Amino acid sequence: MAEFEIECKDLTKRFGAFTAVDGVSFGVRKGEIFGFLGPNGCGKSTTIRMVCGLISPTSGAAFVGGLDATNEAESIRQRIGYMSQKFSLYDDLTVAENLEFFAGIYGIRGTARKNRMSEVMALIDLTPYRKALVASLSTGLRQRLALGASILHSPEILILDEPTSGVDPLSRRRLWNLINDLAIRGATVLVTTHAMDEAEHCHRVTMMQSGHLVCTGSPTELRASQITGTVYTVDCAPLFKALNVAISIPGVADASVLGSRLHVRVEDGKLTSDTLQTTLTASGITVSSVGPGEPTLEDVFVAVAGEAA
User: Fold this and answer.
1) Residue 218 to residue 151: CA distance in whole angstroms
2) Residue 1: its pLDDT value, please?
3) Alpha-carbon gap, residue 130 to 119, rounded angstroms
4) Contact 24, 10 (CB under 8 A)
5) Which one is the CATH code of 6-217: 3.90.226.10, 3.40.1190.20, 1.10.3720.10, 3.40.50.300?
6) What's residue 3's pLDDT?
């Protein structure tokens, strides 16, 4: 048995003089949720399209379930569930009619089709909407339907390209609950996102910047290996004025708003919590507390992307 269900080896894609993906190598194990992270335009979707066999690489290779994505693309498409970042179902059909249409494409007939459609609608919690026109659904419901359509044929490998793009926080959580459930059932999941908080749901992640992979590991491993210095959580007001002040303080490597508090990462030995509080207070910020904080995957990406640049 191959070690990886999905594997990329030095995958490269050029469009004229522009290199969109440059020597990308990674592998996804069976039953793993593997997050492919990076900002918009970094090359994630181009990589996904090569993995699915939708476009050919300039050089390198991708394998899915042991099949070559360049030479066996049609066989791969029959075995995977693919969800693109752009909603691709039919607005003028109902939820049930969309699922019935895709069940027909996948060759699911008769009683098996009826049973599988019922199973999927229950799994994605769309049974109450079975007769609703897709055009009338919220973005979150439409994304759940798109995920349902991609798993009708019970694929063992799922490739999800920014499945939560444009949905509200509650819908994002429900979609990720569905993805986790599918992985527990044995599916291998490759999912792209530019939202670093979503990566916490993944077993492992890789981060991409300008066509290059900059680091790979579990969220815990990356926070431990890629982040240096100290992180502070600051309860203060006004929050965004404090952010602007913090960024300008010597010794501060990065600062961001996290919830209702300021999240500050400082370089090793450069700034104590007392000095940080004193400096903020001197700039007219009311500081209630400064305490230890935990590094986030956004901290990791900012750190490694800065090094890569």
Assistant:
1) 26
2) 53
3) 12
4) yes
5) 3.40.50.300
6) 85
* Regions in the chain scoring below 70 on pLDDT: 1-2, 306-309
Q: Are 198 and 172 in contact (CB under 8 A)?
A: yes
Tokens linked to 304: 């490694």
* Residue 54, pLDDT score: 92
Give the integer Cα–Cα distance in Å for 99 and 146: 9
Distance (Å, rounded) from C-alpha 175 to C-alpha 152? Answer: 16
The 3-state secondary structure of the chain reads CCCCCEEEEEEEEEECCEEEEEEEEEEECCCCEEEEECCCCCCHHHHHHHHCCCCCCCEEEEEECCEECCCCHHHHHHHEEEECCCCCCCCCCEHHHHHHHHHHHCCCCHHHHHHHHHHHHHHCCCHHHCCCEHHHCCHHHHHHHHHHHHCCCCCCEEEEECCCCCCCHHHHHHHHHHHHHHHHCCCEEEEEECCHHHHHHCCEEEEEECCEEEEEECHHHHHHHHCCCEEEEEEEECHHHHHHHHHCCCCEEEEEEECCEEEEEECCCCCCHHHHHHHHHHCCCEEEEEEECCCCHHHHHHHHHHHHC
Q: Kindly report the pTM of this predicted structure.
A: 0.87
Domain-wise residue ranges, the chain: 6-217, 228-308
Angstrom distances, CA of residue 165 to CA of 205, 236, 261, 270: 18, 31, 25, 38
- Contact predicate 98/117, CB 8 Å: no
Per-residue model confidence (pLDDT) at position 22: 96
For the chain, the straight-line distance linking the first and the last C-alpha, in angstroms and rounded, comes to 38
Residue 291: per-residue pLDDT: 94
Domain 228-308 in this protein, CATH class: alpha beta
